[in-house]
Amino acid sequence: MLSTLGTGAAAAALLLGSALPTSSPRWGDDPPAGKIVIDVATVNGSGCRPGSAAVAVAPDNTAFTVTYSEYLAQAGGSSKPTDARKNCQIALNVHVPQGFTYAVARADYRGYASLAPGAKGLEQANYYFQGDPQTARATHTFSGPYGTDWQTSDQTDVDQLVYAPCGEERYFNINTELRVDGSQADPKATSYMAMDSTDGSINTLYHFAWKQCPATG
């Protein structure tokens, strides 16, 4: 789990966002009708300084979006060596209605890449609940010349979904990374890869799978 859990609490809960869809594909049981609140507990990484990430829940409780105000890796030109790799680790505290638990069935990532001929870009991510094993890290690569939007999706098979323990609140951890390799490209050409959207922010969509907890007592 994240080494900074429980320290440096970042932004408070943000509930609704205009960039969210009104409906999403559904896995498992019908979503609960009650309000879902997600707090950003900690934010760490070179791609997301504290205060630069926020969360919004879809109106129908089928998904939530992580929005970043800055997240870009670049190489070539006047770039520094440390610019070539950016990462972000976020711990979320997901408050769900009593009697329900959730898993994340699919994660959609979007952004823009400008890669010179010979340059390569990479996006990878994984997520896990506090105290549970991490999911396999999914990696997606891009090759220059490239100069357009990109989108990737990581989906978990239904029989392999990992649900949060019923009746417990555990941080949901999201780890992402962007890399750009310009070693085989013109060193004067700047190549970059960003997670962003048309409004200048990043919208990464995580799709919930819901399950009703067994009755107790």
Give me a quick take on this structure.
The chain is an all-beta fold and 217 residues long.
Architecture overview:
With 217 residues, the chain is mainly beta. It is 0% helix and 47% strand. The protein is built from no helices and 13 strands. The chain has strands at 27-28, 37-44, 53-57, 63-68, 72-75, 85-95, 100-115, 120-129, 138-143, 146-155, 172-181, 191-194, 202-212. The strands form 2 sheets. Strands 1, 3, 4, 5, 7, 10, 12 and 13 form an 8-stranded mixed sheet that branches. Strands 2-6-11-8-9 form a 5-stranded antiparallel sheet, with no helix packed on it. The model is unreliable at 1-27 and 197-204 (pLDDT under 50).
List the helices and strands and how they pair.
Layout: E1 27-28, E2 37-44, E3 53-57, E4 63-68, E5 72-75, E6 85-95, E7 100-115, E8 120-129, E9 138-143, E10 146-155, E11 172-181, E12 191-194, E13 202-212
Parallel strand pairs: 1-13
Antiparallel strand pairs: 2-6, 3-4, 4-13, 5-12, 6-11, 7-10, 7-12, 7-13, 8-9, 8-11
